[in-house]
């Protein structure tokens, strides 16, 4: 069972305390929302989990294994993928090629095998293409396989980022504002896609400002304010929490 656990994570940048004793977990097949006002520390949490930032104290564990201090590619190889607040696709590559890149952590053929086109390398390439195509199909992009990323509509580029994460064969996906910039119809389709992701047994940790999306698909919600956890609970509990209301609206 793929469990992601944060235990008293603190992050300091010089004299700035970005996170203070942040502790929560995400279990298999669960969608957990991570919300809070701008500057609350949400993306910092993602960066600590994925090895972009080093925690000043505390630990992150995955399936019982401590992953604090691992490099991003090592975290990915353990089954934790992510998307980004600002789209980071390979804009001059096709949708299929973007997803194929995500398979690098699962590839075994070396440079010699690629140069010589060995039978093992050809089989692996076929597997990579198959996995990448399945990820595109899953996200409704199966007909855009050969389309260059920069030519795709914005909403489809958002979907492609998630497809690329899925192509890495993760057990956990971190989605950083996946609904940003989407219209209501696209947001609804996104909610349905995330629901289908959990049906695969993949757990999701999601940062999102669209409260309709958050309240509609999350099993639990964690709320940050100025780097401190101020609430955790079911959506209906969070909606009524006075500390959450004050953090967003003021007294």
From TrEMBL:
Gene Ontology MF term list: ATP binding; ATP hydrolysis activity; L-isoleucine transmembrane transporter activity; L-phenylalanine transmembrane transporter activity; L-valine transmembrane transporter activity
Q: The ABC transporter domain covers which part of the protein? A: 4-251
What InterPro entries does the record point to?
AAA+_ATPase, ABC_AA/LPS_Transport, ABC_transporter-like_ATP-bd, BCA_ABC_TP_C, P-loop_NTPase
A GO cellular component term found in this entry reads: plasma membrane
Q: SMART domains, per this entry?
A: AAA
Answer whether the UniProt record assigns the keyword Nucleotide-binding to this protein. yes
One matching Pfam family, short form?
BCA_ABC_TP_C
The answer on whether this UniProt entry bears the keyword Cytoplasm reads: no
Q: Which domain of life is it from?
A: Bacteria
Record-listed E.C. numbers: 3.6.3.-
The protein's matches in PROSITE patterns, at most eight in alphabetical order, are given as:
ABC_TRANSPORTER_2
Alphabetized UniProt keyword annotations: ATP-binding, Hydrolase, Nucleotide-binding, Transport
| Top enzyme category | hydrolase
Q: Name one GO biological process term.
A: D-alanine transmembrane transport
Quote the protein name from its UniProt record.
Lipopolysaccharide export system ATP-binding protein LptB
């Amino acid at each position: 069972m793929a469990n992601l656990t944060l235990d008293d994570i603190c992050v300091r940048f010089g004299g700035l305390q970005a996170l203070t004793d942040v502790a929560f977990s995400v279990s298999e097949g669960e969608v957990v929302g991570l919300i809070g006002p701008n500057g609350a520390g949400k993306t910092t949490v993602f960066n600590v989990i994925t090895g972009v930032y080093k925690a000043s104290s505390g630990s992150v564990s995955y399936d019982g294994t401590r992953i604090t201090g691992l490099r991003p590619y090592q975290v990915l190889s353990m089954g934790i993928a992510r998307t980004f607040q600002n789209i980071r696709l390979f804009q001059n590559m096709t949708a299929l090629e973007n997803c194929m890149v995500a398979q690098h952590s699962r590839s075994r053929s070396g440079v010699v095998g690629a140069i010589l086109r060995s039978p093992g390398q050809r089989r692996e390439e076929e597997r990579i293409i198959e996995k990448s195509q399945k990820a595109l199909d899953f996200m409704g992009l199966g007909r855009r396989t050969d389309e260059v990323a920069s030519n795709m509509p914005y909403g489809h580029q958002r979907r492609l980022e998630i497809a690329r994460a899925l192509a890495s064969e993760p057990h956990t996906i971190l989605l950083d504002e996946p609904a940003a910039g989407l219209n209501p119809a696209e947001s609804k389709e996104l909610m349905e896609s995330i629901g289908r992701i959990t049906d695969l047994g993949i757990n999701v940790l999601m940062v999102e400002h669209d409260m309709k999306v958050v309240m509609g698909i999350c099993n639990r919600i964690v709320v940050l304010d100025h780097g401190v956890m101020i609430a955790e609970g079911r959506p209906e509990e969070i909606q009524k929490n006075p500390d959450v209301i004050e953090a967003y609206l003021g007294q």
